[in-house]
Specification:
Blueprint lengths: L6 H6 L4 H9 L1 H9 L10 E4 L7 E4 L2 E2 L1 H14 L3 E6 L5 E5 H17 L7 E5 L4 H13 L2 E4 L6 H11 L3 E5 L1 E4 L2 E4 L1 H8 L8 E5 L13 E3 H4 L12 E2 L3 E7 L7 E6 L1 H14 L8 E4 L6 H13 L3 E5 L10 H9 L3 E4 L1 H10 L2 H4 L8 E5 L5 H11 L6 E4 L33 E4 L9 E7 L9 E2 L3 H9 L8 E9 L5 E6 L3 E4 L2 E4 H9 L4 E11 L3 E10 L7 H15 L8 E4 L13 H8 L15 H7 L1
Parallel strand pairs: 4-17, 6-7, 6-8, 7-14, 8-11, 11-12, 16-17, 16-18, 18-19, 19-20, 29-30
Antiparallel strand pairs: 1-2, 3-13, 4-5, 9-10, 14-15, 15-23, 21-22, 22-24, 24-25, 26-27, 28-29
This protein binds 5'-O-[(S)-ethoxy(hydroxy)phosphoryl]adenosine.
Length: 633
């Protein structure tokens, strides 16, 4: 059953059918029109230059400043007193920042970064929890043309070091510690560990005091934010940068062990982040209170907390903590407190709310909500219905938004007020975007399941993998090289009405609570333990997290520990090497791994085992008896 748009909502919606029509009539002119929603210091001479495909140039010769567009512009237009950020700290403290205050803070940071000798093109790593200074730092980098690389504060020192080295970061910005369910966990200490040992490109570590815990200190290298940025001048003149100037690098998991530094640039990225935020969330500046629950460590936080919303003069909630701190009412209390109208979260959280029970949201007045969004993984129809009924009061449209770190902004989604929605379906490519479902040979399907491809360049597309353009071509473009299509790595289906359903990854990337983790990355962490000779990892279906990590390991002859102690050690090893989010749910010690005659591990069979299914086809297996052994262990 489809949910038709509500007439009243449709009448006032930002988007209309006309948006599809104008995009179809002249795609490039359509995007030029969207770009004109921003302030350009110098206009472009050409909308798209695709001559160097797959590296696009959008808005060629155009110049703009991202921070000016996200902050200064609104103050100059007379909205300086509008709240930009209602920040809610985990322990219950809060802080409101108006656009004028945000401008002063960003300017101070920009002045101090300049004083540190940082210049346009330099890289800065941001390793912070969800505090206002994290957003201020990102905007200050954008203002100066510094390329930021935000590293999720749940990542390990090893992961941080790898990202700092790969990007050649000169500065790391962090906090003393971070609040997690009522306790202050160290964070600066992780930076010290990351930078210890061999010399790195990092010259300074700038530290925001958040929790007040003691921190180790390296004189000359480490700097307190409150001794430096806070004293800097609040006036700063933003300079415009080329539309293709690198804005940020964001590392994401691929099918091999090494994370990929996805590179995004300025003009096209901001155009699409801004356009999608305006239309997909039907955002009305000065009226809506918007809340995206993501962390800035992921792309959703970049595009839908920082750049999209702020470019549209949004008043938004930013929350530091977990949804059950101090208890399961927290999100609903926040919605009530600020009168949140637009709420954007991941299916895994919706399923967690379902588990906690509907009495919890029912204890709160959620009537301010008028639109709900979903992102990060396929949303199962049951969770979709629950979300609409229990959180959305049977009233709100739901936008299920498909996109990736690589796409930079939303690509496939219903438009609220325009598209009739089906529970679990992302429905259709947005105006200006072209997506197809194709079979293995690249034949375009008009119904049925296949691979999801993007067959036209789009403004916020990645411009490459930092330092590895060969890998960029191989990963995304080689699969359908003759057609020149971008291969997303996802499967999709078109139903009998031609509506699109995203089915999930078709490669060795797992999706745990909306986080992308590669099987190879976890395997390499496991074999890093001296007791493990070989490891195979699969993502098994999990009722709450979408997928959960299940590992199978073969021990070395020297393995001293076996059994539970070893499993506990291995789980800790993965948390340490990558992050607690990559910690396997189960680890099975097995005598052998199922391999094809060419030596490839048959993950499909391991997935069957992990999900407790009858074994599928084992005919290509070297030794089908392996499974008897695995089943017994
Ligand atoms: C998955 C997050 C189904 C998909 C923005 C994609 C989704 C990967 C959806 C990107 C959705 C994201 N429906 N699957 N609405 N949104 N995905 O880079 O497998 O962290 O390839 O970007 O998440 O994850 P990433």
């Amino acid at each position: 059953m489809a949910f038709e748009p509500d007439a009243e909502f449709a009448a006032a919606a930002n988007a209309g059918v006309a948006l599809y029509d104008s995009a179809t009539a002249d795609r490039l002119e359509f995007w030029a029109e969207q770009a004109r929603r921003l302030h350009w210091e110098q206009p472009w001479s050409q909308v798209l230059d695709w001559s160097d495909a797959p590296v696009a140039k959008w808005f060629v010769d155009g110049k703009l400043n991202v921070a000016y567009n996200c902050v200064d512009r609104h103050v100059l237009d007379g909205y300086g007193d509008q709240v930009a950020i209602h920040w809610e700290g985990e322990p219950g403290d809060s802080r409101d920042l108006t656009y004028s205050e945000l401008l002063a803070e960003v300017s101070r940071a920009a002045n101090y970064f300049t004083e540190l000798g940082l210049r346009a093109g330099d890289r800065v790593a941001i390793y912070m929890p969800m505090v206002p200074e994290a957003i201020i730092s990102m905007l200050a980098c954008a203002r100066l043309g510094l390329t930021h690389s935000v590293v999720f504060a749940g990542f390990s020192p090893t992961a941080l070091r790898q990202r700092c080295d790969d990007a050649g970061a000169r500065l790391v910005i962090t906090t003393d510690g971070q609040w997690r369910r009522g306790t202050a966990a160290p964070l600066k200490a992780a930076v010290d560990e990351a930078l210890g040992g061999t010399p790195s490109s990092v010259e300074h570590v700038l530290v925001v005091r958040r929790t007040g815990i003691d921190v180790p200190w390296t004189e000359g290298r480490d700097l307190w934010w409150h001794d430096t940025v806070t004293d800097a001048s609040p006036d700063h003149q933003a300079q415009a940068f080329d539309a293709e100037h690198p804005l940020f690098i964001l590392y994401t998991s691929g099918t091999t062990g090494k994370p990929k530094g996805i590179l995004h640039t300025t003009g096209g990225y901001l155009t699409q982040a801004s356009y999608t935020h305006h239309n997909v969330f039907d955002h009305k500046a000065g009226q809506d209170v918007y809340w995206c629950t993501a962390d800035i460590g992921w792309v959703t936080g970049h595009s839908y907390i920082v750049y999209g919303p702020l470019s549209n003069r949004t008043t938004q909630v930013v929350y530091e903590g977990t949804p059950n701190s101090p208890d399961e009412h927290r999100h609903f209390q926040i919605i009530e407190k600020y009168g949140v109208t637009i709420y954007y979260t991941a299916p895994t959280l919706v399923r967690t709310f379902m588990k906690w029970g509907k009495e919890i949201p029912a204890a709160h007045d959620l009537s301010s909500l008028r639109l709900l969004g979903s992102v990060g993984e396929p949303i199962n129809p049951e969770a979709w219905r629950w979300y609409r009924e229990v959180i959305g009061g049977n009233r709100t449209p739901i936008v299920d938004t498909w996109w990736q770190t690589e796409t930079g902004a939303i690509m496939i989604s219903p438009l609220p007020g325009v598209t009739a929605t089906k529970p679990g379906a992302a429905m259709a490519a947005l105006p200006g975007i072209s997506a197809k479902v194709v079979d293995d040979d690249g034949a375009v399907l008009d119904n049925g399941s296949g691979l999801l491809v993007l067959d036209e360049p789009w403004p916020s597309m990645l411009r490459g993998i930092w330092g590895d353009m060969d890998r960029f071509r191989e990963t995304y473009w080689d699969r359908f090289a003759s057609q020149g299509w971008y291969f997303a790595g996802d499967g999709a289906k078109l139903d009998e009405d031609g509506d699109l359903w995203v089915l999930g990854r078709v490669d060795d990337v797992m999706n745990v609570s909306g986080h992308r983790i590669s099987t190879a990355e976890v395997e390499s962490a496991l074999v890093g333990h001296s007791g493990v000779a070989e490891a195979a990892v699969v993502g098994a279906t999990d009722a709450t997290t979408g997928q959960a990590i299940v590992a199978f390991v073969i021990l070395t002859a020297e393995a001293t520990n076996t059994g539970e102690q070893l499993v506990a050690e291995l789980k800790a090893e993965v948390s340490r090497a990558i992050s607690p989010i990559a910690r396997p749910r189960e680890i099975h010690v097995v005598p052998e791994l199922p391999k094809t005659r060419s030596g490839k591990i048959m993950r499909r069979l391991l997935r069957d085992v992990a999900e407790g299914r009858e074994l599928g086809d084992t005919s290509t297996l070297v030794d089908p008896k392996v499974f008897e052994a695995i089943a017994k262990s």
